């Protein structure tokens, strides 16, 4: 087991309360254990093997009135067209939209696309689910 380092976090109180309830319901002993799980999960999705071929999807939720989001999504899909297999757009409500972008390509390129997509200002929630392909 690696050495443990103490850190301090500042979060909104409502987020801490929701977080505590969520992880208590799942039987975690303490916040440190919960934060460790979150960090490990995030890093497993955020760091792709750059030299391998990977495939997966990006999901983004946003308000369709945000024209900047639509323009940015379109520009990124065009820029990475060689890696984009399919794009599916769903209207969740009168104003909310979800876009799923399915991709396949070199890990380094897909990671760059993920960073660009998930960094668009105006996206309310963005997730990537990508894994290496077997040789």
Automatic annotation (TrEMBL):
<feature type="domain" description="Transcription factor NikR nickel binding C-terminal">
    <location>
        <begin position="56"/>
        <end position="127"/>
    </location>
</feature>
<dbReference type="GO" id="GO:0006355">
    <property type="term" value="P:regulation of DNA-templated transcription"/>
</dbReference>
<keyword id="KW-0238">DNA-binding</keyword>
<dbReference type="InterPro" id="IPR010985">
    <property type="entry name" value="Ribbon_hlx_hlx"/>
</dbReference>
<dbReference type="InterPro" id="IPR014864">
    <property type="entry name" value="TF_NikR_Ni-bd_C"/>
</dbReference>
<dbReference type="InterPro" id="IPR050192">
    <property type="entry name" value="CopG/NikR_regulator"/>
</dbReference>
<dbReference type="InterPro" id="IPR027271">
    <property type="entry name" value="Acetolactate_synth/TF_NikR_C"/>
</dbReference>
<keyword id="KW-0804">Transcription</keyword>
<protein>
    <recommendedName>
        <fullName>Transcription factor NikR nickel binding C-terminal domain-containing protein</fullName>
    </recommendedName>
</protein>
<dbReference type="Pfam" id="PF08753">
    <property type="entry name" value="NikR_C"/>
</dbReference>
<dbReference type="InterPro" id="IPR013321">
    <property type="entry name" value="Arc_rbn_hlx_hlx"/>
</dbReference>
<keyword id="KW-0805">Transcription regulation</keyword>
<dbReference type="GO" id="GO:0003677">
    <property type="term" value="F:DNA binding"/>
</dbReference>
<dbReference type="InterPro" id="IPR045865">
    <property type="entry name" value="ACT-like_dom_sf"/>
</dbReference>
């Amino acid at each position: 087991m690696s050495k443990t380092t103490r850190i301090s976090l500042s979060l909104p109180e409502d987020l801490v309360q929701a977080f505590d309830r969520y992880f208590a319901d799942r039987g975690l002993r303490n916040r440190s254990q919960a934060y460790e799980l979150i960090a490990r999960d995030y890093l497993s999705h955020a760091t792709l093997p750059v030299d391998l071929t990977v495939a997966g999807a990006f999901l983004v939720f946003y308000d369709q009135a945000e024209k900047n989001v639509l323009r940015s999504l379109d520009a990124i899909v065009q820029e990475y067209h060689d890696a984009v297999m399919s794009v599916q757009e769903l209207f969740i409500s009168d104003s909310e939209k979800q876009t799923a972008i399915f991709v396949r390509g070199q890990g380094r390129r897909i990671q760059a696309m993920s960073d660009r997509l998930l960094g668009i200002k105006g996206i309310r929630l963005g997730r990537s689910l990508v894994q290496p392909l077997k040789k």
